[in-house]
Each structure stands twice: as structure tokens, then as C-alpha cells.
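User
Take a look at the entry that follows and flag anything odd:
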Amino acid sequence: VYTTDVRTSFRALTELDNGITYINAPTIGAEAHLPFGGVKATGNGHREGGWEVYEFYSETKVCYVDYSGRLQRAQIDNYDD
């Protein structure tokens, strides 16, 4: 969006449904660090790029490994040793 009135550009931003908008600047092709994805039927709708890609393509998993060789009891167990 090119304009001499920045307020006009902000009004345009509220009306646009798109992934990236530049105000008074061209796209430079260096947007790999920004989240980008299709809007409505223009893509798969997922944000690919930036850290958001890790959120989409991964699941959080927690794993605890005890290397002591002893069977551990849960903290709620009240057994006498």
C-alpha cells in the first residue's frame, strides 16, 4: 500500500484479508522469518515460516528417564522402606 497518509494505510489494513502487507515499501523477498500462510481458499491456511512453523509441525512430548536402576515409587505412595 503506497500512500502519503499513514492513517489511510491503517484503515486499509483493517479491510484487507491477506498474509503480509507492506506500507510505502516494496516486498523484498526476505520474509522467511515471518509467519506466512494462505487466507481463505488461497492456501492450506497454515502459517509456514518463522517460529510458527514449529508450532504447526510438532507436538509437545514429555519423557522422564531414570537411570538409577531402582524402581521408583510415585510421590503419592506412602510405603515404608
